[in-house]
TrEMBL record, chains A, B, C, D:
This is L-rhamnose isomerase. The keyword Manganese applies. NCBIfam families: RhaI_grampos. Gene3D superfamilies: Divalent-metal-dependent TIM barrel enzymes. It holds the Pfam family AP_endonuc_2. Keywords: Isomerase, Manganese, Metal-binding. It is an enzyme of class 5 (isomerase). It comes from the Bacteria. Its EC number is 5.3.1.14. GO terms for molecular function: L-rhamnose isomerase activity. Residues 90-268 form the Xylose isomerase-like TIM barrel domain.
Length: 409, 409, 409, 409
């Protein structure tokens, strides 16, 4: 511990030299809230195989139990996203109460438009009106559930698309999509938001109705201010500059939230920060810059971002994978909070390419463990949440759940 | 020729069976106009080497001469795009007159925002206001030139971007870009259009200020109805469904034009239709469908598209490469005109995935040479423009121009 | 039919002009054999959902029944690949007899190294020796099954890989892989071949032990002449020139077979020829050129290629999707057979870039339906296999199988 | 400086806890040699524009002067690669002497097969034998130059390829390539190595004769032990796991060297470590693991790797960009040296996915500045080479060279 004190003092001195307020960074970092998804605690896999793990929760209540453990150890995850019908229960108020009893609240409600047999050829863009109606009703039902559980975010992924040229009429499907979203939007309460996700491909392999941020933006822009775009970090073509998209959406007041995960190839849904940590840092750097912006719309948009994790833990134990993700997010967010913005601006103004680049990269290269340690210690949290979990005995306790718990179904 | 008559009769019979009006297709095909770029007649290359070809035009007038040959042989290329300052002349009215004398008109005017030394770190998004001003003035000068030459299209590629994280402030640059475009837009005459191009990367390698169709759309949408998006077929991430983007922009009334070329990797600028002919067909299928749309905005947008070629003939002779591109465009457009739309709609309505797919693919597999032959013969054009060029003696005639003609500078 | 005669005569005349022997092409085309996979008749899907179709075969025998229908209608699919344990039966000789009774033979045997719970962290590259042993035993069992069913091809996809940096020791896994393959190779009979597949990613998302053709080649080259590489057309990074890889492997005598399908994004497993038909043609052009090569090793390698389909029909009916794939393969192979090779060589020798390119592209643009029609009619096959299937009543007949037949498990 | 002592002590304590020998790491790090390229000091750019910088060296001698500055300040760059004919001089012994006088030696000699007009359609794979001969002669001349300057590495990039299907005969070109390399290989002295580079695309846009590591490996394997593969970190398809390729080539004794740079899109040639620093670390982790391997061939191969930088500084000042690259390489190599290998192996053996991943990632997250500081201070080098260069006055001194120095020509 003495070492960590020393390390903290060194970091503090360095920040001082760079004109960075470490206390302010610590305060902001301590406020960061990351929502975990109920389905992240259940079994998942690839199309080839779902490997069942022991101790996986068997229902929505047990998923909340697991989410509560993550919050208890990290102090950063006070809400849990639910997915309907995976988390369908008879009494949603009871579910919300269970969350509160566990120190949590229900976060985003996620409709499911991809697992009903009727949706094989599309849900809200299906050529058959009765299927579009069914899908809209499901979303309206989710809005009702939001009221029951006290959620303010409807997190919508429309998986619709086609597998072959000619299979569908792209423009007609676009109109149906707009109609459906309009009806859902109009059903929202004033304090509710609709976050519209986009995805490059999968499960559709020729065209996806909402394939990129531009299409999601277009939909949101037509609906109104309560509609915003949700960025899943794994839903882009290779090479895409995600932080650029983040900056553009922030500038337009249309960035509503994130689904964090990491990827090397497609929508790999790996642990956040495991593949390209610098990219995650650069995304947070855009956000922290926006939070500090003099443009009120931009700053408010940034401060209202819903940070959510969306991963598929196919081969690793799920709860520690979630804790690891939260810690990785905290690590990169912490680094972004230590960027010396005035220095960066100064070098940009001087067209000092190397100097400006160095400001961001060198900030990324800092070791921020002392800062994480401080905010954990100050709040009475374990300084090493991974270790604390391993020692908690929780894995042993849930083994009684057996194999074959809840999955993506 | 007898064979072609037979082949035409067979195609006609097949179209009749499929409920396709071959005469109407022939009429529409005959009207197709494809603009060729003055710079496509000059030397170009990769960053490693520009291989100089003999006979390359030495100035804007000679480029128009070459473009006139392409039009004479294809009947489909009545306009030529110019690029300022590559085509800078003292007297633009004289240049326009030379075009008219050659049977052409001046098409789009293209400003150059990437070759002045001042633009090394950006033109309209440069941190230095005097450089932004210079770039804006250059675009305003291009609007003046449009008036001189009778052009109605300002075709704008903003190559600005950064090579390193931190080098620039993305949101600030976005605001500068919007400011600059606003000033140019306001200077347009009522019958002028501003077509905004986007590009995934190159010459910037970290972020490009207008990186995708969404960013170009956003800019156009803020400006007003005279601003539209220009799609260069080579400016997308790998795997992008370009025809989907085309459909979305058509539906929004924001598709202004194309820069046609083909690519396998990045912005390879190869001859149109040389790498992925089916994709080109699918793009035209979206356009033809839009031309037939009952939604007037959609149909008018489709009919007003500016079809332009933008290629870099690094190793092949330039005039025949241009003729080849025009023919390839005609070929795929012809196929798109033969799609049996009612049948397609019927199968889509029945959720007949294989049947609907077959409609498009089988149309693509048709041999449309008889149709091309007919529209050429009817108009007194050579039925084989490539052969006609080879036999024209033009290559020999221009060899007197020598080596070292005009290039990208 | 009269029309088709006319069309055939026109094609014949054109081939004569181009110096192409249409009869020889017809003979070669008629010999083309394409193997269909037993699993292609069963249910499949994405990781999000397997949509169950009615009439799906319930066991290996019924899969052979479906494969027999495809062969009956196309005359091109005399063998069916099996997958162990999906096609596990008590009596493999009975299965082979059932195939023979249905006019088929058993083709490649495919081991499964990805669905046993033990394989979660690897099969033949697993750090635990008992799991590697188990996987090797499974492959040896497949060699035994080959003897029972009279198969000569062991078609091996090693799905092993890791999801995170550090998870595995890449070089150590490579050595284990080589050890395992050696043992299997040594168990092969003299007339058996081991075809080694590679894949860019999925189900592993950080590294895949056999990630590209180079790694598969390396393994094959160490084993000996009976080991060759299997190219799945959907297993490459975006932009990869697959026909180039095909040419290289042919030149080295190491191209053993194909898994045909098509893709736009990742390993989409769509119907062959549905997304990028020109690429399929170019692959066949390399093969036909190799078949004609004066280098005996090259020619023999080309003639011994095992053509296999490997698709995932998630939303389309499976039997017609298979027929469609076979027809698309025949179409592009037919085109490749019509390439005027001497003309191509002549233009290549003259460094006539445009002329040489035109030879291939124009061959692709031919309508080869008359040729397909001829070889079908000559052999008493339906000239339109898709229509013949629709009219056969087979779909109705198998509806009694109900929903919930065999899938990837 | 007191702070750095403290930081060093903390790092030392942490290493001790993790079982890592910091002294050994420091020794190995101090030995790391990184070769800089003469052309990296000259003007370069994109195909759109080469922005000329002031002070760029005007000839090979001045490039060596600049390289010497980089070595003087970093202590890590004792050799400089030359490129013929860009560095053509009358007296190569004089050039080598100038290098020695500047504290350097000449490293790899790079032939140029892409800038002669004759090479437009290929050099060693050109259909015309006299051009193939010319290209071979040029490479043989480079071997002679190697003798003159005392170089032991022939670093060969074959840029040959085609832009269009059909343009060339892929297999025939492969044979010509093999013939040419054979002749060059046979001319090498016993202590010379031929490093064969590969590249996914550019300047060829349809097929590149040496397109991937497998093709380069194949060529090297046929030649003999003195031929090895050169990995340019920017020459792969998107998503490629470069460290995997590195591991495979190490395992085969065929990894000869690197061209380091970074990329986000294509062959962007940006400063090493600027875009994806974790990937660079993972590459070095494979190398350090191989250096420690019990397999002597693997270990020797790793220790003999030629580390070379190959960048294109289009918009940033060239000398500091080179220093920055060297420092980034040192940073990631330093981190790789601090991996606790025994712990990693232990967790791999336990199939502890999260634990094993954490070992690498946490090592990457260390701040290794104290280690860099130590090895610089011990050797009397500036602890901050970038700052030392800025303060050296060298930029001012070379401004007398003016604008318009040497570039890629």
């Amino acid at each position: 511990m003495h070492r960590m004190d020393q390390a903290y003092a060194l970091l503090e001195a360095e920040c001082r030299d760079r004109g960075v307020d470490l206390d302010a960074a610590a305060r902001r970092l301590a406020e960061l809230e990351v929502e975990t998804p109920s389905w992240g605690y259940g079994d998942s896999g690839t199309r080839f195989k779902v490997f069942k793990q022991a101790g996986v929760p068997r229902n929505a209540f047990e998923k909340i139990d697991d989410a509560a453990v993550v919050h208890r150890l990290t102090g950063a995850c006070p809400s849990v996203a639910i997915h309907i019908p995976w988390d369908k229960v008879d009494d949603y108020r009871a579910l919300a109460q269970h969350a509160r009893d566990s120190g949590l609240r229900i976060g985003a409600v996620n409709p499911n438009l991809f697992q009903d047999d009727d949706y094989m050829l599309g849900s809200i863009t299906n050529v058959r009106p009765e299927i579009r109606r069914k899908a809209i009703q499901h979303m309206l039902e989710c809005v009702d559930i939001m009221r029951e559980v006290g959620s303010t975010v409807l997190s919508l992924w429309v998986p619709d698309g086609t597998n072959y040229p000619g299979q569908g009429d792209i423009r007609r499907r676009k109109r149906w999509l707009e109609e459906a979203l309009r009806e859902v939007y109009d059903a929202l309460d004033p304090d509710m938001r609709l976050l519209i996700e986009y995805k490059f491909f999968e499960p559709a392999f020729y065209h996806t109705d909402l394939a990129d941020w531009g299409m999601a933006y277009l939909a949101a822009e037509k609906l109104g201010p309560k509609a915003q775009v949700l960025v899943d970090t794994g839903h882009h073509p290779q090479g895409t500059n995600v932080e650029h998209i983040v900056a553009v959406l922030l500038d337009e007041g249309r960035l509503g939230g994130f689904h964090f995960n990491s990827r090397k190839y497609a929508d790999d849904d790996l642990i956040v920060g495991a593949i390209h940590p610098y990219e995650l840092f650069l995304i947070f750097a855009e956000i922290v810059a926006a939070e500090r912006s003099g443009d009120q719309r931009v700053a408010q948009t940034a401060r209202a971002i819903a940070y959510m994790i969306d991963q598929s833990h196919n081969i690793e134990p799920k709860i520690p994978a979630m804790i690891r993700s939260v810690c990785n997010i905290q690590t990169q967010f912490a680094k972004a909070l230590l960027v010396p913005w005035d220095l960066l601006r100064e070098r940009q103004e001087q067209n000092d390419v190397l100097g400006a680049e160095a400001v961001l990269r060198e900030t990324f290269e800092l070791d921020v463990r002392p800062l994480l340690w401080r905010i954990r210690e100050e709040r009475g949290l374990p300084v090493d949440p991974m270790k604390a979990f391993a020692e908690s005995g929780y894995m042993g306790a849930i083994s009684s759940r057996g194999i074959g718990g809840s999955g993506w179904s």
